[in-house]
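Dear colleagues,

As part of the handover before I leave the project, I'm documenting each prediction I ran so the next person doesn't have to rerun anything. This entry is a single chain, and its sequence is reproduced below.
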Amino acid sequence: MANQGLMSPSSNDSSRCVHVSTGFDDYQCTVILMVKRATATFSLVGCLFMLFVIWLFRRYHSLAQKMVVSLTVAAFFDSVAYVMGEDHPKGPLCTFQAWWLTYFDWSALAWVSLITLNLYINLVKETRTEQYHIFYHLLAWGVPLLMSCLPLIGGFYGPAGPWCWITDNHVAWRFGIWYIPLFTLIFLMICCYIRIIYVANARMRSWFGTFNPERERRKVSLSEEIKPLKWYPSVYLLVSLCPLINRLHNAFYPQSPVFSLTLLHVLSAPLHGLANAFVFGLDRDTWGQLSVTGIQLALHSRLCDSTQIREYHPGTVRYTPPGQLDLSDSDDDTNVLFYSPDMALKDRGP
């Protein structure tokens, strides 16, 4: 998906390279598998950290925040697939891992694309998008299901390096299912962000003049909203370059794998979750709350604060001298206040 296959299977079943590459020795294969497992684990931790912070500071109310939550969930399950075992022979487990990787890589990419589209509609078209929430979910989970099932139906999944994916015998499917759509979407996202930043800067320049508190608040909000989100496509571009270069080399020179390219491939491919966590941390408000005191207060609010805020319903107030209270005449919502005949009217309260 960065989750692509790397090399052809080996015929030597006793080697760690049996499903990694015929061109690597056991030490190199061990390094590749260890790096893959380590980067996937870091991504898992990054995703769990993001979900914890989102839960802790309740950053899931706006549509943009909910979309980031969905992106994190997709990246989390994508990282799980990279941690699955070390090397799988062709079979049901290998096919399942390949389908899982394809589905959640596509889901993560779909959510990044939709986050960009949502921001574009909000800021450039000046249109609210809350009504598109269900439609976004249908796209982000439905399109990946289609894309991941196509190779499954064709029987193209199998051992493809340190993980299972589309096999070396179906290179065209690798590029058609993933790489071409991936870099097309990245290019479109970059174009969208160029347009978004241009429009935002033009609006901020047009707001110069008499001080308007609402205008200033909107200017700051606009700037803060764009800053963290604009890095998501850049992250996908960075973690996808090395896998693309390695896959191109494998396509042209299938019998001559390069260890350094393969190592960079497994180093960057599983990093979506960790990279997303890094981008999430660029949000100034979130970073400012990640202090010991801030976390303690948030945990106390989450776990210990039982305060409930309810709507106040004022009732009828009736003043009654002591000894003259008749409960049969009082409504349930009537508040009865006692007073002395010597009290001035102002002393009786409202």
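The two ends are 70 Å apart (CA to CA). Strands lie at 157-159, 164-166, 316-320, 334-338.

All the best with the project,
I.
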